[in-house]
Design brief:
Belongs to the peptidase M17 family. It is built from 16 helices and 19 strands. By secondary structure, it is of the alpha/beta class.
Length: 467
């Protein structure tokens, strides 16, 4: 169930959010019972610290306290309030007003903190008994509850898709998820399957997916009939064995998340449609499994792309850029005003910036600046990487136009982005090389699938597309 705000009620517990630096000053303004109880239990306003203060008649809590740390600590901590919300007992809570120092959350951060609170209730319990959702929050005054809940629903969709094992989230099921989303918002979804990919000149999508039992396909979702044309392309490799360049077992364990790009663009599409942004939205998802079989594509093969460029296959484990290439070419033929691809594409990106940052590339400096400006606002960190033109020669082998896996290991994320840019054509283009996974639990982010970059993009779209 998607988390939502609780309805206001008379028995909601008032939650005071206390800054660590002003905690003692605030306690001095409280009744002796409150101050004494807090001091006796060592409450100092630290991040993640919570305390229920009992009513004088013993009938239940009179209030609750949550620490908000100090400015330096918050700079290193996303979703500060969520760190405490995760520890509160089940119940309905309402934030205290900030007039008496009892709510340290800055107004500019309130919706971000509410999003984090709701995401503490996210549970991926498809394969186990459902747990209680935890502490519920009444939407604070001034917060656009519908907008926050829409972001939460989109993030839950992305997480659920990534977290689902490949046996239950193959190309068939990914197609079904896209079609369900289309039906919900009155969009259309067309699918090109298997041999039709060859007839429709999408040969690299077919080549990568033809060895799998689940048929390769291209999912094409469209919504909106006026406004700027925005096209999202998401890598939908539902499981990646590495192909004939087989991955070791230690590298294959997380490959159910290799469709994280498609999951993230579907989440972003949900945000856009729910907000009814005045755009013509198109979502393209090449959905395949990279499997091992007698008809698998091979190292040394040369594939001809939709664009006509030939690609030498030096590693079958660099398959994501191949399926994206055909989809990007198709997208560019429609002359979108903005073209964005998202993919769990390279390990090099993780080496460069770790799992928490979403590196991205932009052909227009203004678009990069817009994204950088909204990333902090949305608690969705990104980091710009360069389309470094001098590295173009690294993706050009001797036998074909392009090399899908340049030797040497240098600049792996950049060379992959340069490869994709060749197929984005003249379109104004952005590419996100995301990880799509939280390797260890953090506030509002349990271990598992996670969306990256989508909220930052969503918030930047009005500026980027002059909406």
């Amino acid at each position: 169930m998607t988390p939502v705000f609780a309805a206001p009620c008379d028995n909601a517990i008032v939650l005071y959010v206390i800054d660590q630096a002003s905690c003692e000053t605030w306690l001095q303004t409280q009744p002796d019972q409150v101050a004494g109880w807090a001091r006796a239990h060592g409450f100092k306003g630290a991040i993640g610290q919570v305390l229920l203060v009992p009513a004088s008649d013993g009938t239940g809590p009179a209030m609750a306290l949550a620490g908000y740390g100090n400015a330096a600590q918050r700079a290193c901590q996303r979703f500060t309030l969520a760190a405490g919300a995760e520890k509160l007992p089940e119940g309905i809570y309402t934030l205290a007003s900030g007039g008496d120092g009892g709510n340290a959350i800055p107004e500019a951060a309130l919706e971000q903190e509410c999003f984090g609170w709701l995401m503490t209730q996210y549970r991926f319990d498809r394969y186990k008994e459902a747990k209680a959702p935890g502490a519920a929050l009444v939407a604070p005054e001034g917060v656009d509850a519908k907008a926050v809940e829409s972001l939460v629903a989109a993030e839950c969709l992305t997480r659920d898709l990534i977290n689902t094992p490949a046996a239950d989230m193959g190309p068939d099921q990914l197609q079904a998820a896209a079609e369900d989303l289309a039906r919900e918002f009155g969009a259309t979804a067309q699918v090109t399957l298997d041999q039709d990919l060859l007839e429709q000149n999408l040969p690299m999508i077919h080549a990568v997916g033809r060895a799998a039992t689940a048929r390769p396909r291209l999912i094409d979702l469209r919504w909106g009939d006026s406004g700027p044309r925005l096209t999202l392309v998401g890598k939908g490799v539902c499981f990646d064995t590495g192909g004939l360049n087989l991955k070791p077992g230690s590298s294959m364990g997380l490959m159910k998340k290799d469709m994280g790009g498609s999951a993230t663009v579907l989440g972003l599409a949900r945000m856009i449609m729910a907000a009814e942004l005045p755009v013509q939205l198109r979502v393209l998802i090449p959905a395949v499994e990279n499997a091992v079989s007698g008809n698998a594509f091979r190292p040394g093969d040369v594939l001809t792309s939709r664009k006509g460029l030939t690609v030498e296959i030096n590693n079958t484990d660099a398959e994501g850029r191949l399926v994206l290439a055909d989809a990007l070419t198709l997208a560019d033929e429609d002359t979108p005003d903005l073209l964005i691809s998202m993919a769990t594409l390279t390990g090099a990106a993780r080496v460069a910036v770790g799992p928490d940052l979403a590196p991205f590339y932009a052909s227009a400096d203004a678009d990069a600046a817009a994204i950088a400006g909204t990333a902090g606002q949305m608690a969705d960190p990104v980091w710009r990487m360069p389309f470094h033109d001098p590295y173009e020669t690294m993706i050009e082998p001797g036998i074909a136009d392009l090399d899908n896996a340049p030797a040497g290991g240098f600049a792996g994320s950049i060379t992959a982005a340069l490869f994709l840019r060749r197929f984005a054509g003249s379109s104004r283009y952005m590419h996100f090389d995301i990880y799509g996974w939280t390797p260890s639990a953090a506030p509002a982010r349990p271990k598992g699938g996670v969306g990256q970059g989508a909220r930052a993009i969503f918030a930047a779209l009005p500026e980027m597309l002059n909406l």
